[in-house]
Amino acid sequence: MRLARIVRGSRAFPAVQVDGLWRETATIGATRPVDDGTDGGEPELLAPVEPLVVFGMSHNDGADNRLVPAQGFLRPARGVVGPGARVAAGRAHGPIVVEGELTVVIGAPARDVPVDRVAEVVLGYTIADDVTRPAQFALDDHLVQAKGSATPVGPWIETDLDPAALGIRTYVDGELRASGTTADLAYGVAETVAYLSRYVDLGPGDLVLTGAPGTGATVDRDARIRIEIDGIGALEHEIRFTDTAVTDTAVADTAGDDR
Hints:
It is built from two helices and 17 strands. The chain is mainly beta. The radius of gyration is 18 Å and the shape is globular.
């Protein structure tokens, strides 16, 4: 089942796709339309959820990272934006790394969830770009500066999907710049959600970005980004560099950091 949040006219509402048409539902996650009319044309897609919590994962981009403990970090929930968004990047912050990642949409309260029961608390899966400022890692151990930008998410949620080995491709201005598969994640999707649930309460609509298994690309100019994930589709957005001033006395050269 494919779920989304859409805009038609001046209204924004959750929807389900039925026979190729978007139909309004009562809540995100509901699969029964509230009316029997057609969707009236191609709608504007919003970020598929409005989360209270957004988690990313450090050191989860390859099997070798199993030697390093998993580390979760927070991204600003208010920064979640939908398909087609323009993400601002301050030139003084250094280059941007765009990271295509399979993203879990939580569907039920989750605390201390065993790995073999994670599917019970997952609504479905979507795509996110874990936009990163790698030059900022050395300046802030809490990753606020490196991971505090807007987070493009979308275009919709797929509820019937096996996340074990999905291909991910990251394009910059139409050029394939990186590709990988969720099978290459150091810690799998279920392991990641179970790990986070041991330390925090997750709830409906929250997002877990599972990591970039070789799917990151450096961007140092205005660009159009496209991230494809098998079984879901494609998320597109823009990166736009600005001359926003910062108070940092120096921008560290730490582009090799693997977070």
